[in-house]
Amino acid sequence: MKHTVEVMIPAAEIKARIEALGRQITEHYRGRGNEMVLVGLLRGSFMFMADLCREVHVPHEVDFMTASSYGSGMSSTRDVKILKDLDEDIRGKDILIVEDIIDSGNTLSKVREILSLREPKSLAICTLLDKPSRREVNVNVEYVGFSIPDEFVVGYGIDYAQNYRHLPYIGKVTLLDE
Ligand SMILES: O=P(O)(O)OC[C@H]1O[C@H](OP(=O)(O)OP(=O)(O)O)[C@H](O)[C@@H]1O
Ligand SMILES: Nc1nc2[nH]cnc2c(=O)[nH]1
Ligand SMILES: [Mg+2]
């Protein structure tokens, strides 16, 4: 499909917001004396994780899992599958799930449910982007970078048919009539 990509959130704004999120997270988890793990959902969260973890000034581990619901198109199949699990056990640890975007909520509600069954000490979610108007299932999200309107976005880790993940900004995709 022919389309255009326009800047929606410039790189500098993302950087400033991540610094603020990092301060908030650091303040909350500092001095708890518990092991902390940032859990990134691949592939979308890789760039956000790289920048966020450097702003979290509390000792922590980084682990990743893959839970895929979107194929190559623009809509969720609602069928969330765990394709790659975490490498480490999370029991008794403070877990912060790091995600690029929450849209229908299907991915995060499923991941939150799966990880909570493993009895972490605490479980919270930090998403860079939130599209609240698209929610199909309710999910508690403790940290949100930007609340955005119902636009299809790419960049900063987020793809359209596996393209555009490398863009340093969040872009808005507009489909063109051919
Ligand atoms: O709230 P939802 O409607 O479930 O949508 C959000 C999820 O969809 C995208 O992932 P995707 O499954 O496309 O895989 P990716 O992270 O590899 O891009 C995005 O990265 C979120 O993980
Ligand atoms: N690329 C992309 N993937 C998504 N997955 C859920 N919402 C979105 C979106 O706006 N853009
Ligand atoms: Mg994803």
TrEMBL record:
A GO CC term attached to the entry: cytosol
Keyword entries, A-Z: Cytoplasm, Glycosyltransferase, Magnesium, Metal-binding, Nucleotide-binding, Purine salvage, Transferase
Enzyme Commission number: 2.4.2.8
GO biological processes: GMP salvage; guanine salvage; hypoxanthine metabolic process; IMP salvage; purine ribonucleoside salvage
Cofactors that this protein relies on: Mg(2+)
Entry annotated with the keyword Glycosyltransferase: yes
UniProt pathway: Purine metabolism; IMP biosynthesis via salvage pathway; IMP from hypoxanthine: step 1/1
Main location: cytoplasm
Span of domain Phosphoribosyltransferase: 14-160
UniProt cross-references to InterPro entries, sorted A to Z: HGPRT, Hxn_phspho_trans, PRTase-like, PRTase_dom
UniProt-listed Pfam families: Pribosyltran
CDD domains tied to this protein: PRTases_typeI
Catalytic activity: GMP + diphosphate = guanine + 5-phospho-alpha-D-ribose 1-diphosphate; IMP + diphosphate = hypoxanthine + 5-phospho-alpha-D-ribose 1-diphosphate
Localization of this protein: Cytoplasm
Domain of life: Bacteria
NCBIfam families, per the entry: HGPRTase
PANTHER family: HYPOXANTHINE PHOSPHORIBOSYLTRANSFERASE (PTHR43340:SF1), HYPOXANTHINE-GUANINE PHOSPHORIBOSYLTRANSFERASE (PTHR43340)
Family (UniProt): Belongs to the purine/pyrimidine phosphoribosyltransferase family.
Function: Purine salvage pathway enzyme which catalyzes the transfer of the ribosyl-5-phosphate group from 5-phospho-alpha-D-ribose 1-diphosphate (PRPP) to the N9 position of hypoxanthine to yield IMP (inosine 5'-monophosphate). To a lesser extent, can also act on guanine leading to GMP, but shows a highly less efficient activity with xanthine.
Name this protein carries in UniProt: Hypoxanthine phosphoribosyltransferase
